[in-house]
Amino acid sequence: GLRDSLVKILQDYKLQVNLNEGYKRVFVNDTVTLGKNMRSMARRGTHIDESTTCQLCTNPLIQEQEAFLGDVTVFFCGHAYHNDTCLRGREFCVSCVKS
Asked: Rounded distance, CA 20 to CA 8, Å?
């Protein structure tokens, strides 16, 4: 009767607590792993040469015959833009936001 019901309730509660602790461990581990991956990505460089084009206008970011075409922004995702003509003060990757 009542005793069996209370025992069952306590067992279910203990199971819920154990599951919650397991979820918390997984969440913390995933958060640490994602943080490490993000730091690793932020440390990588992006190579820009004459063949690298702006993601919006598709013109080369740099050209050998011209000394300076203006500032260029390269985001962590690797997409690059001309600041003045294409990016126009945006602080996010236009290509990544579209997808």
From this structure: 18
Any bridge partners for residue 60, and if so which? 53
| 8 A C-beta contact, residue 79 and residue 72 | no
Q: How far apart are CA 32 and CA 14, in angstroms?
A: 27
Q: Which residues pair with 72 in a beta bridge?
A: 82
Mark 21-55 as b/e (b = at least 16 C-beta within 10 Å): eeeeeeeeeeeeeeeeeeeeeeeeeeeeeeebebb
Q: Which two tokens stand for residue 69?
A: 């075409």
Positions of the chain with pLDDT lower than 70, given as ranges: 64-69, 99
CA-to-CA distance for 2 and 5, rounded, in angstroms? 5
Where on the phi/psi map is residue 60: left (φ > 0), alpha (ψ -120 to 50), or beta? beta
